[in-house]
Amino acid sequence: MIHHDLIVVGGGLSGLRAAIEAKQAGIDVAILSQVHPGRSHSGAAQGGINAALANDPAGADDTWEKHAFDTVKGGDYLGDQDAVIKMTRDAPGIIYEMDHWGCPFSRYEDGRIAQRPFGGAGFPRTCYGADKTGHYLLHTLVEQAYKLKIKLYVEQYVASLIPHEGACQGVVAYDLVRGGFEAFTAGAVVIATGGAGRIYSNSTNAIINTGGGMALAYQAGVPLKDMEFIQFHPTGLFTTNILMTEAARGEGGYLVNGLGERFMERYAPKSMELAPRDITARSIQTEINEGRGVNGQPYVYLDLRHLGAEKILERLPGIRDLAIHFEGVDPIEAPIPIVPSQHYTMGGIDTDANGATPMPGLYAAGECACVSVHGANRLGGNSLLETIVIGRLAGAEVARYLKANSHKGPDARAVYAAVEAMEKAVNSLAAGSGTEDAYALRAEMTVVMKEHFGIFRDEPTMKAGYEKLTSIKERLGKIGLRWTGSVFNLDMIRTVELEGMLDVALAVAAGAVARAESRGSHYRTDFAVRDDVNWLKHTLAYFRPGEIGPRLKSKPVTLGPFEPQERKY
Amino acid sequence: MTDVTFRIRRQDPRSKKDPEPRWDEFLVPYGENLTVLDGLFHIQERLDGSLSFRYCCRASVCGSCAMYINGAYRLACQTNIRHLETMLVTVAPMPHLPLVKDLVCDMEGFFAKYEYIRPWLIRHSAPPEKEIPQSPQERKKLDMPIDCILCGACYSSCPSVWGEENYLGPAALLKAFRFEVDSRDEAARERLPLWANERGVYRCHTIMNCVEACPKELNPTEGIQWLKKAALRRRLLRRAK
Questions:
Q1: Residues of A in Cβ contact (< 8 Å) with B60
Q2: Confidence (pTM)
Q3: What distance, in Å, lies between the first and last C-alpha atoms of chain A?
Q4: Which stretches of chain B score pLDDT less than 50?
Q5: CATH 1.10.1060.10 boundaries in chain B
Q6: CB proximity list for A283: less than 8 A, separation 6 or greater
Q7: What topology is assigned to B108-236 in CATH?
C-alpha cells in the first residue's frame, strides 16, 4: 500500500496542472498514469488554445466577454454560463503563465504571442505553436512537474476506486512494468483521464482514450453528464481518422466536394469553413450522403494548395507530415481526403466549476469531466484551455478540501476489499469460458456507436443500436483472458477495460435516445430543432449495478448574461 | 499480396519458466494502409495475447512505439508496410536498453537523465504582466529541439551511450540545448556544469547515429555542437549566455 495526500489519475494537461497547483499549495501529490505523462493524448492537440489576448490587429477589441459569448453560443446554450465566464476570464492569465514556464508559442514580429482564427469566433483568438500546440503545452507542464519533483508513477493502469462511507480514499492500480495490483490510498483523488473516443470505430483519439476514468467514477455512483453530446471533427484523414487541425481552415484552407464546389457556402455563408464543428461536420456528411463526395467515395477534400508551400511549412508542418505518412498525400501538391471523425466527448463526470464531483474526495478535470463549459458543442481551441484552467481550479479546490479534512485516514478494510475485488475480477476473467471474443465485442461496439449514434440520429436507428449494445453487454459475461502473465499484460488491461467502455457507450446511447431535440452536436432528423422549453437541461446518467443501461435524470443549466437565441453563422 | 510475415523478438526476462529470448513468426493479412502497429495489434488480439508493446497516439506524436524494425529505428505507428518494400517485417525492441518484456524497453534511465539536466525554463527576473517578448527569429531557434517526442531512438542508437552508462545521451542534451538556446531562459550556471563535462557534450563524438535514428528527423548532434560552442563562449570568454 502506498499513500499520498492526493492521487491524480492521468498525466495529461489537466492532471499535470491539477498536480502542480496542489503541489504549490503544499500537498503531497502523486500522478498515476497509464503512459509516461509526456505521451498523453493532450500532446496530439494541434491547432491552438483560445484566449482573448487581443494581440492581432484583426482581434484588437477582443475581450473575455466576447470569448464567453462565442463559447456559450457555440455550445448551443447548454454550457453553464458561470463556468464559461470563469474559464474565459482566466484564459489570458494561464496563457501568460504557460509562456513564463517556457511554452514555445509562435510569435508576431513585435514578440507577442501569435493568434489565428478558429471556428466560432471569426477573428484571431487562438494562440498556437505551429500546429503542435498540444505537444508544446504538454511538454511544458511535464517539465514543470519534474521541476517541482511531483511523484510520478508511470505505466499504472488504474482499475478501480477505493470508496469508503461514500467518500473516495484512493485507487487500485495494475503496475504494468512490475506486474500485479497495488492500492494507492489518498485523502482525495482527481480523475483526469481524457475522453472516451475509442468507443467509436472512427475516432481521432489515441488508442488509450477509452473513457476509463469516466467508467471509474460512473461505476462508483457518480453520474455522467450530457454524454449524448459527441463531437465529430470535420476533418479526420479518410483512411485512419487521424486529426487534420481546424487551423488548416483557420489559415485559409478550403473544403471542396466532388464537384469542386466550396460547399460551405450553402450551409454557413458568413463563416464558410470556419463555422463551428457541429455545423461543418454535418455539412460535410450531407455532401457525402447526397452523393457529392470525391469520385463517388465517402470523403471530401481539404484543399490547402493555394496557401503555398511557405505558409504550409511554417504554420502547418505537423499535419503535412501526418498526411504524407498516413494518407500518402502531400498537402502542398494535392488536396487531402477527409471525413468527419469522432473527436471529443463534451459530456463526462458531473462536476462543478472547481472540478468537484458529488462524491466527497473525488474530483475530475479535463475531457473526462463535464463542468459544463462546452455545452452541446465545443469550440476548437477551448479544450486545451479547459484542461489548464479547470485543472488549476481543481488542484486548488482539492488542496482546500484536504486541508479541511486532514484527520481522515484510509480505512484498511476498504482498501483490502478493493484490491481483493480487483484480483477476484481478474481471476474470474482468467477462468472465463472465453466463448465470446473480447476483441470482437469491442470492435462490434465501436461500429454500433459509429453507425447508430453518429452525426445524424433518429429514434429507430438509435433504438436498434441500443438493442445491439444490450446484446454485447449480455455476451460480456462469456469473455476470458488469453494470457495471465504478470508483466505488461495488455490482454488483461484491454479485456478489463471493455466493460467500462461499454457502460460509457450505453450512457451515450441512453442520453441520445432520450433527448428529443437537436442541439449542438446532437442532431436528430426526427426532432430537427432545439427545444428550450423541454430540453434546456443537462442529462445525468446514473449507473445501475446489475442492469444494462443507466437511470436518467436531469439538472438545470446555469444561465447568465447570454439569452438563448437561434445560432446563425 | 496476401500475408505479411512478422518476425518478432520475444522475451520475458522475469519469467521463471522461460526467460530466454526467441523469435516468433506470425502471419498478418496485408492491407494497403497496414502499419507495423496495426500488425502488432492484430497479433495481440487474434494470435498471441501475451505479446507486449507500447502504444498510445498512433499518429507519431507521443513517442511510445519506437522499435527496431527491419534494421532501423522507427515508430511502429508511422511505419507503413508498403514503405518497407518487403513482406517480411522483423521487429525487435530498441537495442542497448534494459528489457521489460518483448518490445517494451525500460526507459527509467532515459528519463532520469532527462530530469538531471533540469529540463525547464529557468528565470530570475520577475515575470512580466503579459508574455515575455520573443521575436520570431529567436523563436525559430526552438523549432528543431521542441519537436522531440522523447521516444528514445537516438539514445538507443548512440555508441557513446553504449560505452559509458553515465553519458547523458542525445535526447537529454537536445533538451538542454532547447532551453539554453531559448531567449527567455536566464540560466547562468544552473545547467552548464551538468552538461559541459565528460559525461555530457564532450562524450559526443559526432557519430551522428542519433540523426539517422530520429523518427522526427531532428538533429541532436547539431544541438550538442551548439552546446560545445556555448560552453567555450561562456567559460573562456565569460559570456553570460
A1: 321-322, 325
A2: 0.98
A3: 55
A4: none
A5: 108-236
A6: A234, A255, A263, A264, A266, A267, A268, A275
A7: Fumarate Reductase Iron-sulfur Protein; Chain B, domain 2 (1.10.1060)
